[in-house]
Amino acid sequence: MSALPADDAAPDLLVLTTGGTIDKFYSTAGELEIREPTVGPILEQAATNLRIAVRGVLAVDSLDMTAEHRRTLTEAVAAAETARIVITHGTDTMTETAEHLLADPEAVAGKTVVLTGAMQPSCMRITDAPFNVGSAVTAAQLLDPGVYLAMSGRVFPAGTVAKDRARGVFVDR
């Protein structure tokens, strides 16, 4: 999705996708596979009038995310000309990636970066994906520059949050 006007004006918001549960689908073999980013259709259903650009950066399960993957994502954030950025990310290592971004103040200088994802794939009938994406889009517009996570109906500053695997929610650390 790239909801930019024909005059190529800068987007109000940039969404960088990295894969994770939000982008998983069940294959015909019954396995979960990462496919095309699903944030575009989620945003289209939201009928927003924001100019939003969506760019795929990675397509990996966050458990497979390496230091090199995080460097690639950090470079994409640093290169972004838009100051408001949402990153879709797998929930298992989202907090680690947020802390990695926070540790590179030059990459995020003057930018509001909000990571989000889903506990259930967005293709499922019951999923938190649209709620989390909407929360992240709103948070990116309202928060001061910094790195945040929008999950479980809350917004957390990077470095202050943990995933409670037993309950399937993000909580204060």
TrEMBL record:
<feature type="domain" description="L-asparaginase N-terminal">
    <location>
        <begin position="13"/>
        <end position="166"/>
    </location>
</feature>
<feature type="binding site">
    <location>
        <position position="62"/>
    </location>
    <ligand>
        <name>substrate</name>
    </ligand>
</feature>
<protein>
    <submittedName>
        <fullName>L-asparaginase</fullName>
    </submittedName>
</protein>
<feature type="binding site">
    <location>
        <begin position="91"/>
        <end position="92"/>
    </location>
    <ligand>
        <name>substrate</name>
    </ligand>
</feature>
<feature type="active site" description="O-isoaspartyl threonine intermediate">
    <location>
        <position position="21"/>
    </location>
</feature>
<dbReference type="Pfam" id="PF00710">
    <property type="entry name" value="Asparaginase"/>
</dbReference>
<dbReference type="GO" id="GO:0004067">
    <property type="term" value="F:asparaginase activity"/>
</dbReference>
<dbReference type="InterPro" id="IPR006034">
    <property type="entry name" value="Asparaginase/glutaminase-like"/>
</dbReference>
<dbReference type="InterPro" id="IPR036152">
    <property type="entry name" value="Asp/glu_Ase-like_sf"/>
</dbReference>
<dbReference type="InterPro" id="IPR027474">
    <property type="entry name" value="L-asparaginase_N"/>
</dbReference>
<dbReference type="InterPro" id="IPR037152">
    <property type="entry name" value="L-asparaginase_N_sf"/>
</dbReference>
